[in-house]
Design brief:
77% of the residues lie in helices and 0% in strands. Helix 23 runs antiparallel to helix 24. It is globular, with a radius of gyration of 38 Å. The protein starts with a helix and ends with a helix. The relative contact order is 0.06.
Length: 930
Amino acid sequence: MNNSNQILKLLNIRRDESWLVSQLFFLQFFQGAGVALFFTVANALFLEKHEIHQLPKVYMLAAGMLLIAGFIYSKLEHALPVKKLIGAVIIFMAVSVGLFRLGIFVGLPDWSLYLMAAWYYILYLLSNLEFWGLSALLFDIRQSKRLFGIISAGDIPAKFIGYFSAYLVIPFIGSVDTLYISMVSIGLSLFFWYRLMRAGKLDIHVNHHHVAAHEPPTADISVTKLIQGFFGSNLILSVAALSFVVVTASTIINFTFYAEVKERMHEHSNANLAAFIGLFLSVGRLVAVFVKLLLTGKLADALGIKGSLLITPLVLLIAIFAVTLSPSLSEDSTIILYVFGIMAVLSETLKASIQDPVFIAVMQPLRTSLRLRGHTIVKGVMDPFALAFGSIIIFVVMGVTGNGVNMHAIGYLLIGLIAVWVALIFIVDQNYLTSLVEGLSNRYVNGRDIDLTKEETRKILSEKIPTAKAGEAIYLLQLAAKLPDSHKDDLLRKGLAHTDEKVQLEAIKIVEANKLQSLLPELQILISSHPSRQILAQGIQAVCTIKHEEDVEDFSPYLDNKDLNVVKASVIGLLKNGSINAVVSAGQKLQQLRDSAGEDERAIAAEVVGALRVKSFYPSLLTLLGDKSEKVMMAAIEASGRLQSEKLVKVFVEKLQTKKLERAILDALLESGQAAVKTISAFIMDANINKDLRLKLFHLIAKTGGAHAQNVLELCIDKYPECRAEIYAALHLCRFRVQESNKEKFDDLIEKDMSFSAHLLSQIAWIQRNHENQSIESALMLEFDQAKTRLLWLFSFTYEEEKIMRAKNGFQLNKKESIANAHEIIDMVVYREIASRFNTIFEQAPVPERLALLKATEQDQPADFDALAKEVLSGSEYIYNPWTKAVVMYSMTREDIAKSTSYVRPFLSSPELLLRETSEEILKKTATPA
C-alpha cells in the first residue's frame, strides 16, 4: 500500500482518481500502439514506391479527408450517446486497418498508398476526438491540468512500443503483416471502454442545444459575427489559430526529416526504411513518456498555461537557429538529418506530452457542449487546414528553390511561424482567463440599447405605455424622462392616464421634477377626479411646485385641509415653488405644525423639512428630536438624515443604543453620508457598544465610502481582530485597495490566515484520526471556510478585484466545476507562490493528501484533546470564533474540564451570551459528584 501511495504521490494522482486514470491510460495505450504501427508501415510503403516530393500530396489528401471525418464525427456526436460513440469509433478504426491489410493482399494499385499514408491522420483524429472528448467530460479544470498528461501518457509508451516493434518485428514478418498487430492492438482498447461503461463513467448527458443569450438577429451580419458564431467563443478561436500554426510548423519539420531520410537511405528496402523510422521515433517516445508521466502535470501547475505552452516553440527555436545560422551544420547533410530528426522528435514529444494536454485543459472552463465543439473544430477543422497549408508552403518552397529542400529557406520560414506561435500563446492565455471569469458569471446581457432619438422608438413607447404592466410602464416612463421636453409630454400624458396608481405616481414625480408647465391641465384634472389620497397629495405637491406665482393663492385652502397628507403636500409644493407669497404662507403653516399640540402635526412638520432637504431648517429638527413623542422623534430622525447636517447627526446618534430607534438612526446615518462619518467613527471605537451594533456600523461607514472610512476600518483590523471577516467585507464595500504604504501589513495578514488555515487542516486530520468527534470537526471546518473567505477578501484588495470576486462566487456556488474554475482564477491572478499554497490548502482532496503536499509534520498536530482544547480556548496563537470555542467546551469530559478550568473560567464574564452560558453549564459538571 505504501509503494502504491508513493507512486500516486509521484504522479500527482489522488487515491480516489487512480482507477479512472488507469482505465483511460490503457484505453489510450492500446489505440496509440496500433496507430503508431500503422503509421510506420504506411510511411515506409509510401516512401519505397514514391519520391519525397510526392509526400505533400498525401498531406493535401489527408486534409480533405480530415474535414470530412471531422464533419461526420460532429454529427455522430450529436446523434449518439457518449458510450455508443466511443465504442463505434474504436471498432471502425480496427476494421479500417484490417481492410488495408486485406487490400494489400488482393493487390491494390500504387495510388492506394496515398490513401493509406493519409489514413493515419484519420485514425489519429478519431482516436483524439473520442479520447479527449471523454476526458474533458470526466474531469474539471484543476484535475485536467494535473491528470491530462498522465491519462494521455498511455499514447507515448504505446507509440514507443509501436515504433520499436517496427524496428524489431518488421525485419522478420515484413511491414505488411505488422498491420495485423496494429488491428488487434486497437481492438484491445474495447476492453477498457467496456469497463468504463460498466462502472457508469460513460453515462454522460451533453446538452448540445444550449442557447446563450444574444442579441436579436439583424440583417447586417458581419464577418466577425460569422466567425464568432462558428467557433462559439474567443477561447476556441484563439486555440484553433494556435493549433493551426503548430500543425503547420510540425508538418514542415516532419516533411524535411522524411526528405533527409529518403535522401540518405534511397537504396534501402521498405523494411529497412520502416525500421530506421521506427527506431528514431521510438527514442523520442521513450523520452516523452518520462516527461509526460512525471513533469507535464507539475509543469502545468508550476508554469501555468502560458509557461507550459511556451516550452515547445522556444526549444524548437534553438534547434532551428543551429541549422539556419551555422554554416558548418548547413553543409553537413548527416548532421542536418539528425538535427531535423531531433526537431521532429521534440515537436511530436512536446506536442504529445505538454501541448495537447494543455490545449484540452485550456477549454475546460467552457460548458460541456462547447468543449466538445472546440475539440472537433481544432482537430477536425483547423488541423486539416493546417496540414493543407503546410503542404502548399512545401510545394512553394520546393518550386522556388528548384524542386529541392533548401534548409535556409525552411529555417527562416519556421522562425516566422514560431514568432506567430508565441504571440498566439499570449492571446490564448488572456482568453483562458476571460473564460474562467465568464464561467463563473451568471449574468447575461439581453436586448439592445434603445435609441430614443428615433421617431419610431417614441411611437412604440407611446403605444406601449397605456397597456403595459406597472413595472414595464414605469421603466418606459423613466426612459421617456430622458427625452427633450418637446418629446416627453405625450408619453407622460399616457402615464398620467394609466389605470395603475404606481404608474400615475411615477408620471407625477417626473412632471414635478421637470416642472412641465404644459402638463398642468392634466394634473389639475387628475386632482379634481377624486383620486386616492396618495395620488391627490402627490398631485397637489406637483401643481404647487410648478404653478406660476400669481396662481399660488388658489391653493391656500389646501393648507387648511383636514387631511394632513394634503397639508404636507401643499406646504412642500409651495415652498418648492419659491415665489414670495408661496414661501410666506407655507412657512407660516410649517411653524404652526411644528408648534402644534398634536403629535401627528409635529411629525408632519418633520417630514416636510426632510422632504425639502434645506439645511437652514435644521433648528426646527433640533426641537423635534427632543420631542417626548416616539412618533415625532422617529420622523425627526428620518428627516435629519436627509438634511446631512453634522449638528443634527451629533444629536440623534446619542439615541443609537435605544433598541427601538436603532434601525431608524442607522438609516438616517446612512442618508447623512459624509456628514456622519466622524460621528460613526467615534462610535465604532467605543469599547462599550455591543458587538452586534459595531458590526452594523462597520457596514454603515463602508457605505458612506471615502478615505476616512477606509482609514477607520483599517484601524479596526488590529483593534477588533475577531471581526476581521466583517471588516474585510466592509473594506470591499468602500472599494479599498492596498497601497505601497500598507502592503507589508496586508501581506502579513495573508500569511497569518494562510498559516491558520494550514494549522486547521492539521487539527482536522488529528480529529478524524483520533478523536472521532463530528461536532468539533464540523466547527473546525466552518472555521476553515471562514479563513478561506477572509483570504479571498484580502486577495481582492491586492490583486484584480473583479476576478477574485468571481472566484469567491465560484466557491460559494459549491459545484465541482465552479470550485475548479475558482481555483484556476486564483492560480492565474494571485502571486504564484501564494496561489499555489492557497490551492493546496483549499482544493478538494483528502485532508492527509493536502497536508502531505504542504509537508506538514506530526508536530503540527495536537498532542491530545487537552492540547487542542487549550489552544482553541486560550486563543494564544490563533483567534477562533465563539461557536468553535463553545463546541470544544461542550465536548469536554469532567477530566478535560478539570485540566482546563483556567481556560474555561474567563468565559463566565464573556460579552458573548453563547460562551457565558456554555462555560456556566460545563463548570457545573465539576461541582456535581460523579
